[in-house]
């Protein structure tokens, strides 16, 4: 296939007819919950599974009128107002859902923007460098709490991959334009780019979270090994191995009510005053305080993770010197066997997180959440990676609803959401949720 400027009026006409009354494509991808994490000097070994709490990415075509009207008049007069372009394809990106306004970038520094541009360039590479592709508006809807240890960014990337591949490869190239897909097929269940091309884009854009992106793409449960050199800028090596896990397991995902008026995390609820804190402590003597605990950390998710890892190093040095009691997770083989059995009681006994002591030291309110989970009757509670999300394991759906109701009235959690785990297979990973298969013009 070849493309030139003389072809573009035909392309515009065909595309305008195809998108008339069309709402575009929406991809959705799940949160990733780590149920076991063993930290070592150069990284960690973990077991994680996808759960039914999702982010979505919607890609909509820009019309001729929109491409000019959404810019200022000065800019609109100097740019190509065609709905097709041989340059950058993303026209506008917005973020909504479970995130405060302005918390995430909406320009080229947003990873979803970059992934969509990379996928467009990949189609030009395999078809024609001058291929004119549709301009698009992108909307990210976040239901997974941001910076909470649940893989919200990985879900964004996975949802963007399935949506962008479907939009450009199937709807534009195959259906609207009538060309053969790069893979040689006239139709595709998702898109047309090879899986290794899409995964390479994800790895290059998010090396630290590549294993989580893979898990969000495929769903199910996986063993993840991450190793990195301690030097800045070094490569990160990740290896993911799918695991058999019966289920679903029923989780209640929670976020804490914070106790510091300086808290500025995106998941934070308005904090109580010092007088309210004193009253809470007086009325609830079960709340414990520890010598090494901070006020709840005032920082981004990356900053929180860094502080938790630093605190872990300090605590392990204290364990080695005998100044602190030992804390280590159990053998990874035990959690693997428990997941195969599907018995939630066995899973609760064998799950664990080496970051737990450090996370509860940096964010002390996590201790109150864990205590509330115990009082609510959860089989067990685990901090999601570095936190601040916690997950309470329940026996079944009815039990999960009971635990959720108890937690909602506890006063120590901001949210409590039921999120069962996925079995490997259809729609357990990233998938399309809005995708009208329009007829060719």
From TrEMBL:
User: Could you tell me where the Polar residues compositional bias lies?
Assistant: 278-287
| Location of the GHMP kinase N-terminal domain | 110-170
Give the coiled coil ranges. none
GO MF: 4-(cytidine 5'-diphospho)-2-C-methyl-D-erythritol kinase activity; ATP binding
What is the uppermost EC class here?
Answer: transferase
User: Which InterPro entries is this protein grouped with?
Assistant: GHMP_kinase_C_dom (IPR013750), GHMP_kinase_C_sf (IPR036554), GHMP_kinase_N_dom (IPR006204), Ribosomal_Su5_D2-typ_SF (IPR020568), Ribsml_uS5_D2-typ_fold_subgr (IPR014721)
Reported EC number(s) for this entry are: 2.7.1.148
Q: Where is the GHMP kinase C-terminal domain?
A: 337-408
Identify the stretch(es) annotated as Disordered: 267-299, 416-441
- Taxonomic superkingdom: Bacteria
Which segments cross the bilayer?
A: none
Report the leader peptide range.
Answer: none
Pfam families for this protein: GHMP_kinases_C, GHMP_kinases_N
Asked if the Swiss-Prot or TrEMBL record annotates the protein with the keyword RNA-binding, the reply is: no
Which of UniProt's keywords are assigned here? ATP-binding, Kinase, Nucleotide-binding, Transferase
PANTHER family, per database record: 4-DIPHOSPHOCYTIDYL-2-C-METHYL-D-ERYTHRITOL KINASE, CHLOROPLASTIC
Instruction: Return the protein name.
Output: 4-diphosphocytidyl-2-C-methyl-D-erythritolkinase
Organism of origin is Corynebacterium kroppenstedtii (strain DSM 44385 / JCM 11950 / CIP 105744 / CCUG 35717)
